Amino acid sequence: MPTYIALFKSTEQGVKEIKEAPGHLEQAFKAMEAVGGKLIGFYAVMGEYDYVGIAEFPSDEVQMAFGLSVASQGGVRATTLKAFTQDEFAAIVKKLP
Description:
The protein is α+β, with helices and mostly antiparallel strands. The chain is built from four helices and four strands; from the N terminus they run E-H-H-E-E-H-E-H.
């Protein structure tokens, strides 16, 4: 399955509701599994972003729908990156002219 890395920033609403964040995360992880996704790792971080999530989804379309669903809740905004393994990267490079 394709791997995605999401960089999250809390919105003003997310900061106001920070005490509910652990419960919101559990709900999101269950919703992820329900659409065929798999959580690889989730971290609260310091710096420009507040959270980093690494997950697998069956397709770009499934990941995008899930991401839009999370964003529509209003607590976070995400920048999502599609990730390629070292082997996938090497295979892509081999296709270069």
